[in-house]
Amino acid sequence: MAAKANQHFVPQYYFRFFVGDTKCIDLINLSSGRLIEQASIKGQASKKYFYGDEAMEDNLTTLETLFRQPLRKLKQNKTFSCLDYEEVIIALQGITFQRSRTQAARLDHKVIAQQWAEMFKEISINNCDQFSEDERVELMESVSVEPNIEALQLTLMVQAVKQGALLGDLGMVILKNRTSRPFIFGDAPVVFQNFFQKNIIDRGVLGLRTPGLQIYFPLDSRTAIYLYDPNAYNVKANKLGQVEVRSKDDVDKLNRLQVHNSSSAVYLPSKDSAGYVLQLWRESRREQFISKGRIDEYSVKHEGQTRHILLNYEAQLSYVPDLTFSSCSSLAASDDLLIDREAWDGRRYIPDPRPWHMPELRQRFD
């Protein structure tokens, strides 16, 4: 078991997408801005027994092997047309799986899980008639609760794989970096954002079916996956589904997303990019990880009584950039309630959408 104690939440094969057979990589610590040179890849984006025992690690390795194949084909061929329908679905599942498995994802969910645990503790104590009011107060102060965040994350990872196909209606392009600046990556390389709904701050807008969703996932310093809602953004790709990114400003924005999204480190594909990435870190004012996990409480009147409603969701990053290659003509209003892309055509929301079976996606790749 000791041989599998060091468990990676970003697989080593993904590091090799950027540095080839090199066993070391340079990185920048996000809390201090310190440059660390020639760090062993084996020790990166990993923790001791992060997921659990040897059997769990074996299961995750099996999934990694499955998801690696279509991602490698995309990196090599730089077009989604190289994949058949089943491979596209596996690639989408690999993207959602990678997003769900990181230390950053665990920290995001830990905030929500802890608040829910505290709430259930309060309910349990207050609903127990055998305690006096003084005893309830004492118990609330003395009893501590801590959720099993590792088990929760594993559940969410399973759910992420099952629901990955829900991204099948998104536009799918490969970004080809034509600038002198590299795409960098962090320890949470899959980034979700929603520029179309950037003004919505009181509920989640990063769900797999949410209108306006954008997903960015670099595959090497010159290549990246970009998924987007075609009803919200205008992306001009060539016949192979490729977008030539020639704006350094766009590359900077995508790299800042990696800085903001990761929990502890970003990685440098080349030694000569250290000064550039350090400047991004300074401009991002990134000195601590800010959890995206949120719980909002609302009070409503019902049958003469005040009821409390708790809404938990994942907030957007504090940095939500506008990308020139993915223009958005208008933004959703703060009072718009846009939940499911299937019910939204870019102009109006249909209350009763038709069942969703992804026929368009199968036609595109069969």
Automatic annotation (TrEMBL):
<dbReference type="InterPro" id="IPR025332">
    <property type="entry name" value="DUF4238"/>
</dbReference>
<protein>
    <submittedName>
        <fullName>DUF4238 domain-containing protein</fullName>
    </submittedName>
</protein>
<dbReference type="Pfam" id="PF14022">
    <property type="entry name" value="DUF4238"/>
</dbReference>
